[in-house]
Amino acid sequence: MTATFVGIPPFPEAAREAAGNAQLRHNLRRATHTIRDRRAAVVGELDDWGRLRAAGKAIKERTLRHLDVHLERLEAAVTAAGGHVHWAADAAEANAIVTRLVKATGETEVVKVKSMATQEIGLNEALAEAGISAYETDLAELIVQLGDDLPSHILVPAIHRNRAEIREIFLRTMADWGRPAPADLTDEPAALAEAARLHLRERFLRAKVGISGANFAVAETGTLVVLESEGNGRMCLTLPETLISVVGIEKLVPTWDDLEVFLQLLPRSSTGERMNPYTSTWTGVSPGDGPQEFHLVLLDNGRTDVLADSVGRQALRCIRCSACLNICPVYERAGGHAYGSVYPGPIGAILTPQLHGAGGMSAADAALPYASSLCGACYEVCPVAIDIPEVLVHLRSRVVEGPGHRAEKAAMGAAGWALRDHRRLTRLQRAASRMRDLVPRHLPGPGAAWTSTREVPEIPPEPFRDWWRRTRGAAAGGAR
User: Which residues contact 397 (CB under 8 A, 6 or more apart)?
Assistant: First the structure.
């Protein structure tokens, strides 16, 4: 089961509260517009962006169709390179495996590379229950952890915080976790980064165990790949004696040639850069160089169920670039916390309900497919062409098919009955025109939710078919 943010209400209620927070809206608008403008500039430089996007989609689709073959190939390559592969069916099994591996080293502290997969399964909390402290080393993740906060963005987890808030967090809590922040700390970015660097350096030099995710796993060689912008990830991947990587089974690419496509797509779509500042790769273990023990935990956690859905499985193409969040008008106003999951924004609205969906959607999950205006901006910027609006509509149909939606199902059934026969539809239109003055502007009962933000369309005094017959007559062939 994918971890959710405990205490956060379903999206409509959480979004309503977030939209009233002027500071949050200011922080989000400034950050998302900066990132989206940078992305647009570097994408516009490439004449073949459309072909790259199509290639990324095709590679992901082909890999997902033959995922079983590629997973076995990856396992064999990792094992041949001196690594150990573990299979985790769900979050509980993955957490148990990682906890056991850390305990086997005798350590009670680990350093972590930013990882959506470990957030998804609630690994930090599981390790804490076992007496193991997990320290985030990505700057934004560090801010979230020190602030006892929750991530709100895939790429920039602390996007909802401004510089002044970050300074206060560092001054208030950094000493409780290790090296304190300087007493004269300012909110200048360079000063904040330096305080974080000095604080984290102690962790890096002391840590014996590192935990990571991976952006990609290359099946042909067993190589894992992490892209990051700070270098903190590379410290986690190279300094500890033991490295444990938790990776979703959909992160595979078959070959290095396939990886090359994504190394062009991801930086431009995520940070608006032509090339990623730090791209770290590791293959098993190398004597005398880097971690001497490597464990790969391959995580399912609902992904196989998603793969079985011919429409919904395109969500598994996601490369976690966050372009859809940065362009989404709903995310910009509601923020990431409103989605109640580690996967916010448009991609979260289709991924989270599906990962949870095997046992039926909860009320919180069922609300997410409606957290969209279906404007399509997310599809336009997605580097692997995930048709998020299509999946949203698909998931809405699944919600309606579930229990508790009898009124909506009845209404759709009545509409279908009327639209299947043109004579029946004509009679109903004429009846509606005669009673147009009796139709309320706001519907009662189940229809109240729809008309709370919309007006009932005005019914014309004469149906179109009658108007056509009266004005065109037999010369136009009449109208049925």
Answer: none
User: Can you tell me which residue has the tokens 């959480």?
Assistant: 14
CATH number, domain of 45, equals 3.40.50.10420
Q: What angle do CA 10, 14, 20 make, to 5 degrees?
A: 160
Reported as a pLDDT band with limits 50, 70 and 90, residue 84 is very high
Domain termination residue (choose one: 252, 271, 303): 303
Residue 81 lies inside a defined structural domain of this protein: yes
In a domain, 281, yes or no: yes
Three-state secondary structure call for residue 231: coil
Higher pLDDT, 339 or 357: 339
Report the distance separating Cα 166 and Cα 275, nearest Å.
28
The answer to whether residue 457 sits within a structural domain is: yes
Sign of the CA dihedral 315, 320, 323, 328? positive
Name the least confident of 36-50, 234-248, 352-366. 352-366
pLDDT digits (tens, 9 = 90+) for 218-243: 999 999 999 999 999 999 999 999 99
Contacts of 341 (CB under 8 A, 6+ apart): 2, 3, 4, 5, 348, 352, 368
Structural domains counted in the chain: 2
Closest to 89 (Cα-Cα) out of 304, 244, 253? 304
CB 451 within 8 A of CB 443: yes
- Residue-range definition of the domain harbouring residue 460: 418-476
Phi-psi region of 436 (alpha: psi -120 to 50; beta: other; left: phi over 0): alpha
Residues 424 and 295 placed together within one structural domain of the fold: no
Residue 93 lies in a domain: yes
Final residue before a domain boundary, out of 278, 303, 328? 303
Close Cβ partners of 30 (under 8 Å, ≥ 6 residues apart):
none
Residue 341 is inside which H or E element, if any? Answer: none
User: 289 - beta bridge partners?
Assistant: 286
DSSP string, 69-131: HHHHHHHHHHHHTT-EEEEESSHHHHHHHHHHHHHHHT-SEEEE---HHHHHTTHHHHHHHTT
Q: Is the pLDDT of residue 191 over 80?
A: yes
